[in-house]
Design brief:
The protein is mainly α. It has helices spanning 2-21, 32-44, 53-76, 91-96, 101-109, 112-135, 142-176, and strands spanning 81-84, 87-90.
């Protein structure tokens, strides 16, 4: 409760600082989510969709109905291994890399510079985890090692986010009062 009340003042102060230094919305802060909401409002109020949207919408609807059905079928597979083309793949490997419709839907509402950097970070974290697990052969509990690595990755990522936010705040203060 105290944090919620405190955040009201911090948010209002940050907005005043940003609006003093930058034009909002403007070239540096285009507010991409507002564009999505504006397009939705136009659609709801009778403006037509762009041409040739219907086949694309139907294709994505079919795709994202098929994905959870496929995931359920892969999950129910009684065999430990699946044959995909010429390769034998463990069921857990297939399920781990199975695409998520929810993740795709979230990506629609975020700008690419927001989404792509997180995707790159997740890929790098996954590769680093695999390298560490492969090089650490004397560990008896691989799941525990993966869990510890993921906790470390969250701590490092949080530090990057906090550091970026803190630095940008000090840059903003120096620009606002110079």
């Amino acid at each position: 409760m105290i944090g919620s009340v405190f955040s009201i003042f911090v948010t209002a102060g940050a907005y005043l600082l940003y609006s003093r230094v930058y034009e909002i919305p403007g070239e540096q802060f285009p507010v991409p989510t507002a564009q999505v909401w504006l397009d939705m409002a136009r659609l709801v109020n009778g403006h037509p969709l762009p041409e040739h949207v219907t086949p694309v919408a139907i294709a994505f609807a079919v795709l994202f109905v098929a994905l959870p059905i496929g995931a359920a079928l892969v999950g129910r597979s009684t065999s430990v291994h699946m044959k995909i083309g010429p390769w034998m793949v463990q069921k857990s490997t297939v399920q781990r890399w199975w695409p998520s419709g929810i993740a795709f839907a979230m990506g629609i509402y975020n700008a690419p510079n927001f989404t792509l950097m997180r995707a790159v970070g997740a890929f790098v974290a996954s590769m680093v985890t695999e390298i560490i697990v492969m090089r650490t052969q004397h560990v008896t509990d691989e799941r525990q090692l993966r869990r510890k690595i993921s906790i470390l990755a969250i701590i490092i990522a949080s530090g990057f986010v906090l550091g970026e936010g803190t630095l940008s705040f000090f840059i903003l203060l120096s620009q606002a009062f110079s």
